[in-house]
Amino acid sequence: xxxxxxxTGAGGLALGISRAGFKHLALVEVDEDSCLTIQExxxxxxxxxxxxxxxxxxxxxxxxxxxxxxxxxxxxxVPCQPFSIGxxxxxxxxxxxxxxxxxxxIRRLKPQxxxxxxxxxxxxxSFAKYFSYIELMLTYPGICxxxxxxxxxxxxxxxxxxxxxxxxxxxxxxxxxxxxxxxxGVPQKRERLFIVAIRADLGVEWSFPSATHxxxxxxxEQYYSGEYWDRHRVPSKRRPELNAELRERIKALKHRLxxxxxxxxxxxxxxxxxxxxPQPERTPDEPGLxxxxxxxARSYVGHTGSPLDEPAKTLKAGVHGVPGGENMLALPDxxxxxxxxxxxxxxxxxxDSFVFPNSWTExxxxxxxxxxxxxxxxxxxxxxxxxxxN
Length: 390
What we know:
Strand content: 5-15%
CATH class of the largest domain: Alpha Beta
Helix content: 25-40%
CATH architecture of the largest domain: 3-Layer(aba) Sandwich
Largest sheet: 7 strands, mixed
Distance between the termini: 13 Å
Strand order of the largest sheet: 3-2-1-4-5-7-6
Order of helices and strands: EHEHEEHEHHEEEHHHEHEEEHHH
CATH topology of the largest domain: Rossmann fold
Radius of gyration: 22 Å
Mean pLDDT: 89
CATH superfamily of the largest domain: Vaccinia Virus protein VP39
């Protein structure tokens, strides 16, 4: 099955889609540093990545007429800064809002399915009207915005068409959901909005994949069976103390006769425990592991780092550099330190063979903006199975 991806970034979603069995016809990314990361992994012939057809250009400048119509999948990690809680909140008026350009590509390529990923902030009440506009544009990409027409006038025209019930042009059935990456085996509490559109003429049914991991299962392994601590060889005296809320949850769990059905959430310890101690600094001959320490981490109110025995907090790119609390590890002795590049990559489920050759700050920006590979793979696998049955 064939796919095209827009706004590829460092390639987290692209890697997940490749692993699900799709063949990329084009990956379009304007950022040179992100393209440098992918090119370096192509040079190293990293599995799946070495054959990617990468185009370093603006989506608005790419020749989509060179691609066939009716490909199975179009994926787009539309820039999230206009709608991010940590951004400037300019929404549709932000020059980085590329949803209209994404709809233009859908209209040209007429893909069987579309995956769009963005921050959960897009579902905030302040953006509710524009989110409805996005959904209707996705549903009816053939109804173009007229020259000089304001977006809210276009929205009104789309609403009238939608309520009329007429379906004589290209249209899609659209669903969305906010997914927590930790529920799919990613060692990180990362909630993101996913929008999936499937071409209506295919007549297929689809729903988001069910969760495979749960917090209750983690608590069961930690404080009922003890398997978690045994696996990591953590003695009783070094295990974290429980607060009142966790005590109540564990008490409720212990009344069960059998453990929870889902797998346990993955923790930071699960993800990084087998890595060696970070190097004090990056060296010119350092191998691709990129596992060196950055100084200056400190804890303050609201920025306390990620506990070792829970999924990490959401890794973030940050508008003015890497934010403190989200990209720090809270150690059992009460100290904090920044995650290394490799640790951060593992928290986003990139394979160790995938390297980040840029500076620490730039690499953390790319990692913080990425879709976790496992989450992208789970969604793409479900889509592939649905389209294959059709």
